[in-house]
Amino acid sequence: MSPPKLAAIKGMNDILPPVSGQWEWLEGIVRSLMARHAYRNIRTPIVEPTQLFVRGLGEVTDIVEKEMYSFEDRLNGEQLTLRPENTAGVVRAVVEHSMLYEGGKRLYYMGPMFRHERPQRGRYRQFHQIGAEALGFAGPDVDAELILLADALWRELGLTDVRLEINSLGQLDERQRHRAELIAYLERHADQLDEDARRRLHSNPLRILDTKNPAMQSLVEGAPRLIDFLGAASLAHFAGLRAILDANDIAYRINPRLVRGLDYYNLSVFEFVTDRLGAQGTVCAGGRYDGLIGEIGGKPAPAVGWALGVERVLELLREQGTEAPALQPDVYAIVPDAQAMPLVLRTLRALRAAGVSVQMHAASAEGLGSMKSQFKKADVSGARHALIFGADELATGEVTLKSLRDGAGAQSRRVLAQVDEWAASLKP
């Protein structure tokens, strides 16, 4: 008997062609955009010490309490975790390698993250994020720069159905004063709290304001607002951010209930949200985290950043009918006779070196197949041209070039002598 078929873990998905081409298209746009904004790529390990996330994200956050994939290293007993997000990892790398010694850094990353939760649309156990982090910069101008960077990405992708929400969480002493008032308010209405809110009441009451429970919405609306506890410096920072957004015609809504789910945030926080993805409507989110570098062991320094969910962005593009350009070869090589293969591959090697994308017809167990079947495969490939390596043409040192899309007639081209001259005409 054959062994049982193995399948991927639920919520950890294979990304196959042609869908993987959409990912490459998005990633290519991001790389170009980041380069124009002078953000440089950083790549950190998928596995980090568990304590990094306990200290960095907060011990009473949902991620640390319920969602992390953590395990003991069998070699040395070290507690390790598959990264549930990457800001903490980036900060760890910046501190470990003293990257701020010569000044601030603008960095970006792409890669998989892992959270142990119930898979649903737009929410997977292995998911992918693209993030941008600016470390060592204290002013609201860099907060605004990051928001403008995300807005530029939406414009390049053609995303229209996203809106920006912003808030300020102020500084620690301001949050502590608000926290005391918030707990007192919630205790007066304890009979209206659900189980999750009662659990958070004294450990992380700010997260109660972000509840999705419809029965608690009126209670939350009447809660003390953090923005009313901000001092002059925090208000000035928030005003500076808003002034830059206004000057750049960036529409936004101040959402006093926007608190984010991680303990490391302070001052500016923001989210780009959509109504098209149901409960998973947050497409991109971030904010300032000035205390995280010191918390992880570095010399205290300001920082701000955001992360977007790749799966959610691609799903949103599909929802609004935006199609990523298909990745198709420029040329399909048709080979009637296997004896021509040495010259075929030599020619295709020269074309590829000149920048032409070429798919070669390859033999199956039954051989190369008929010309008719090869032309069918050439058509399915999406190639704009076919190169036909027929015996008559090769006898005179030529190959036939035939358009597959616009009905143009066939042309004869010198096999190798003219490759550099005619390669440009084969590219889109």
TrEMBL record:
Which residue ranges traverse the bilayer? none
EC number(s) recorded for this UniProt protein: 6.1.1.21
Keyword Ligase set for record: yes
**Keywords attached to this entry:** Aminoacyl-tRNA synthetase, ATP-binding, Cytoplasm, Ligase, Nucleotide-binding, Protein biosynthesis
Its GO CC terms are: cytoplasm
Annotated Gene Ontology MF terms?
ATP binding; histidine-tRNA ligase activity
Domain (Aminoacyl-transfer RNA synthetases class-II family profile): give its ranges. Answer: 26-336
Instruction: Determine the domain of life of the protein's source.
Output: Bacteria
One Pfam entry for this protein is tRNA-synt_His
Q: Where does this polypeptide localize?
A: Cytoplasm
Q: What class of enzyme is it?
A: ligase
Coarse class of the primary localization is cytoplasm
Q: Give the reaction(s) catalysed.
A: tRNA(His) + L-histidine + ATP = L-histidyl-tRNA(His) + AMP + diphosphate + H(+)
The residues listed in the UniProt record as binding L-histidine, with positions renumbered to this chain, are E85, N86, T87, R115, Q129, E133, R260, Y264, Y265
Annotated GO biological processes are:
histidyl-tRNA aminoacylation
Gene3D superfamilies assigned: Anticodon-binding domain (3.40.50.800), Bira Bifunctional Protein, Domain 2 (3.30.930.10)
Q: What does the record note on quaternary structure?
A: Homodimer.
Please state which protein family the record places this protein in.
Belongs to the class-II aminoacyl-tRNA synthetase family.
Name it.
Answer: Histidine--tRNA ligase
